[in-house]
């Protein structure tokens, strides 16, 4: 990757972001050698300004930052590195260097739910309701989505918001199960919505 290290005296800022939650975890600095080591090993290495040497994040704590993607900005003098962290990022033990919890926003939590659903499909358990749906097949899952949609419509006619929210959650859950059964990702449906929105 070609980056302009000379513009800022040999060091460039590297913003570290969790690839799953999209939370910014920390900011560090890299020289050419640190970037090359990071690219080669797939674990984030910085140039420590206080130690005046290369420093792999996690070298003492084992809280390594596993690289998913490295992007450079339009001026080629700043990096965005998306990672899967192996633990808290900050030396204080906090998830991020700003003291934030490294958790997805409400909508981002769907990624966690999708992963749980996929795990129930790939590693079925007799006790799992989700696994039992996959065992019954597409027709049964689709039927369940239809039932939940009807129940949501019925609750929409009443004024009980709690029951309505419960049925909405049931519908969304079963819809995600159906998508997984069909081998489709919810993000593909969002892409369709985005394409319609731009018209």
UniProtKB/TrEMBL annotation:
Query: Which CDD domains does the record match to this protein?
Result: NTP-PPase_HisIE_like
Q: Where in the cell is it found?
A: Cytoplasm
Report the enzyme's class at the first EC level: hydrolase
**Positions of the UniProt region annotated as Phosphoribosyl-ATP pyrophosphohydrolase:** 110-199
Which keywords appear in this protein's UniProt record, sorted alphabetically?
Amino-acid biosynthesis, ATP-binding, Cytoplasm, Histidine biosynthesis, Hydrolase, Multifunctional enzyme, Nucleotide-binding
The UniProt catalytic activity note for this protein reads: 1-(5-phospho-beta-D-ribosyl)-5'-AMP + H2O = 1-(5-phospho-beta-D-ribosyl)-5-[(5-phospho-beta-D-ribosylamino)methylideneamino]imidazole-4-carboxamide; 1-(5-phospho-beta-D-ribosyl)-ATP + H2O = 1-(5-phospho-beta-D-ribosyl)-5'-AMP + diphosphate + H(+)
For whether the record's keyword set contains Cytoplasm, the answer is yes
Pathway(s) of this molecule: Amino-acid biosynthesis; L-histidine biosynthesis; L-histidine from 5-phospho-alpha-D-ribose 1-diphosphate: step 2/9; Amino-acid biosynthesis; L-histidine biosynthesis; L-histidine from 5-phospho-alpha-D-ribose 1-diphosphate: step 3/9
Q: Which domain of life does the UniProt lineage start with?
A: Bacteria
Q: Name one GO molecular function term.
A: phosphoribosyl-ATP diphosphatase activity
Region annotation (Phosphoribosyl-AMP cyclohydrolase) maps to 1-109
PANTHER family tied to this protein: HISTIDINE BIOSYNTHESIS BIFUNCTIONAL PROTEIN, HISTIDINE BIOSYNTHESIS BIFUNCTIONAL PROTEIN HISIE
Task: State the family named in the UniProt similarity comment for this chain.
Answer: In the C-terminal section; belongs to the PRA-PH family.
Question: Per its record, how is this protein called by name?
Answer: Histidine biosynthesis bifunctional protein HisIE
Organism whose genome encodes this protein: Arcicella aquatica
The gene name on file is hisIE
């Amino acid at each position: 990757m070609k980056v302009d290290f000379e513009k800022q005296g040999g060091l460039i800022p590297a913003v570290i972001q969790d690839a799953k939650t999209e939370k910014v975890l920390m900011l560090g600095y890299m020289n050419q050698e640190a970037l090359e080591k990071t690219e080669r090993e797939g674990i984030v290495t910085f140039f420590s300004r206080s130690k005046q040497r290369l420093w792999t994040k996690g070298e003492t704590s084992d809280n390594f930052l596993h690289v998913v993607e490295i992007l450079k900005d339009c001026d080629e003098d700043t990096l965005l590195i998306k990672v899967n962290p192996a633990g808290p990022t900050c030396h204080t033990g906090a998830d991020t260097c700003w003291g934030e919890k490294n958790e997805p926003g409400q909508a981002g939590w769907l990624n966690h739910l999708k992963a749980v659903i996929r795990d129930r499909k790939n590693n079925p358990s007799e006790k799992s309701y989700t696994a039992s749906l996959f065992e019954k097949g597409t027709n049964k899952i689709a039927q369940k989505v239809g039932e939940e949609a009807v129940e949501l419509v019925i609750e929409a006619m009443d004024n009980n918001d709690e029951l309505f929210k419960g049925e909405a959650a049931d519908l969304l859950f079963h819809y995600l199960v159906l998508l997984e059964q069909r081998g489709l990702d919810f993000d593909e449906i969002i892409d369709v919505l985005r394409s319609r929105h731009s018209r």
